[in-house]
Amino acid sequence: MTPETRIGALLDAYPEVSDFLIGLAPQFAALKNPLLRRTVARVATVQQAAQIAGMPPGDLVVALREHLGQEIGETGSLETGPADGERPEWAGTDQFLAEVDADALLASGLTPIVEVKRRLAEAGAGDMVRLTASFRPAPLIDALRKQGFQVHAEPNAAGDGWLVLVRMD
Question: How confident is the model at residue 164 (pLDDT cuts 50, 70, 90)?
């Protein structure tokens, strides 16, 4: 297992890992939702899952390897998913086409990326969608960037969650 291992593949091979992950971080409770398990878990990597849980990816790899009785080996030097740096000029406004609450969507069994993309489909050039979450939604951030959207992620002002700004070019 490596930081690039997909959570879905890991759960397919070792179904018991689900309870172990939930015990490590409450954010993983979403793995009990069949829809999220079929969608997000298929694309999310161990490294992204660690970012969601707010832990160093190497620590999650070690914990999973220990749990599965695998050799610890080298985990490499991995980042924990910090903020994206200085807020870009385009993100300097408080005017958004829509605001999306990732936690509320997940609690209702929906995936945030579907709602963000639905809102972005209504957007024009320069329009933004603001997503809030109690965790750094690394798979969503990576997926949107791969699809060509401008994305900026940073801890929220209260320091108890994340703010993700997505801009349509």
Answer: very high
Q: Is residue 133 part of a domain?
A: yes
Residues in the chain: 169
Cα–Cα distance, 121 to 61 (Å, whole number): 37
Residue 21, CA distances (Å) to 7, 17, 24, 54 in order = 10, 6, 5, 13
Say if residue 138 is in the same domain as residue 94.
Answer: yes
The string of pLDDT tens digits covering residues 110-123 is 888 889 989 988 88
The whole-number pLDDT of residue 141 equals: 86
CB count within 10 Å of CB 94 equals 7
Residue 95 sits in the same domain as residue 153: yes
- For residue 21, the model assigns a pLDDT of 92
Nearest to 95 by CA among 124, 54, 55, 133: 124
* SS3 (DSSP) at 59: helix
Q: Which of 135, 133, 134, 138 is nearest to 151 (CA)?
A: 138
* Residues 106, 160 share a domain: yes
Whether the full predicted model's pTM is greater than 0.70, yes or no, is: no
Name the residue type at position 91.
A
Question: Which amino acid is present at 147?
Answer: Q
